[in-house]
Amino acid sequence: MYKSIRQWFAPAPAIPQKSEKEIQSLYPKFRFQVLESTFIGYTVYYLTRNNFSPVSKEIGEALSYTKSDLGDILAVTAITYGIGKFFMGALSDRSNPKKFMAVGLFLTAILNFSFGFANHYWIHLFLWGANGLVQGMGWPPCGRSLGHWYSVRERGTTFAFWNIAHNIGGGIVGVVASHSAAKFGWEYAFFVPGVIAIIGSIYLFIRLVDTPQSEGLPPIEVYRNDYPPEEKEDHEKELTTKQLIVEQVLMNKYIWLFAIINFFVYIIRYSLIDWGPTYLKETKGADLLGGGYSTLILEFGGIGSTLLMGWVSDKFDGRRGMVSLLCIIPIFFAFVGILINPPGNIWIDYVLFGLIGLFIYPPVMLLGVAGMDFTSKKAVGTAAGFIGLFGSLGRTAQGKGLAVLSTHYSWDVALGAILASTLIAIFLLIFSWNLRPRG
């Protein structure tokens, strides 16, 4: 049975190459189709991953969960999501993204339905941990697909556009979850996204395609005459599992640098996604819908800047670290503003949330692209998964850490920990200032 499953998920085989006229006609069509389907698919993944935080306070009140209990649920899903990203990333590099991504979305829908029907802490802990694991089937196949259909010199701009899926999905989920919970009960913050995910899974299975060669087209490097340095002769060479994990990732010092930086960037990012609504409710007087809208403001704040900074990084020869550093610095001052802003001026907090969203999403996107720049396109999923693993560990640290600090000390102390993480990220990014793709 294992062999049959492996064969079903295996990459689509190459077919005879089409005529030059057909290539010129079909290539733009399929490029758009891959960008569109992975964009929509990953947006839907967000609806079934980040729908816990906007209603966590209401779940706690309904089921008598402590803030520590809620923090444990956030922490376990962050851990399993990180593990899932790494191992699913390695699997995705040897799988058909059309099937891989669609199955993952279907499984997360089932786990969301199960979470909504459950009412016991340990069952919720298990289900949301399992959800984190299958959520790891989302980003790696997107990286694999885009890496095969878009060349090195257009990655910054392409991934900048694709990365808006994070913002749209992450923004919409706060509104969908909070409105569903306010109207029908907290359970519907999981039922409604689950239904959308089932539809998204079917859409991916119909719409997404595998490599250009599986559609009778030449590799993207040939089509655009854009070869990565040192890789012109073997850009289509398949890698063994050892080469994927050990040579391309674990022995790659650049991947380690980007991964460690990502740890602290994810602390910054998810501190407001996971705890922002609760923080505003407990300290600034926000209600359920106001907490949900804070997530929308945070996420949508990053759309324009992500597009701009991706393009800028391409124009500066792929210096993703330099652009990321310039984005992180203003975030420090925005958190200082949130810390000193007194209750009664929640609009100021909303503005600062939007400012943080404006500057945090370019580094989130660029660190992933930087990982692609310094590894083979055949190892994109594995590298992305490894960098994502460290990001998830960062989310785990803040998920549990901020719960402990805010409960046993104060929210001011918790914000101080976020400020410290921001300073560490700034320091580490200095070492990536001059890094460009493949030297």
Automatic annotation (TrEMBL):
Keywords: Membrane, Transmembrane, Transmembrane helix. It comes from the Bacteria. It is found in: Endomembrane system. Pfam families: MFS_1. Belongs to the major facilitator superfamily. Organophosphate:Pi antiporter (OPA) (TC 2.A.1.4) family. PANTHER family: GLUCOSE-6-PHOSPHATE EXCHANGER SLC37A4 (PTHR43826), GLYCEROL-3-PHOSPHATE TRANSPORTER (PTHR43826:SF6). This is MFS transporter. It comes from Leptospira bouyouniensis.
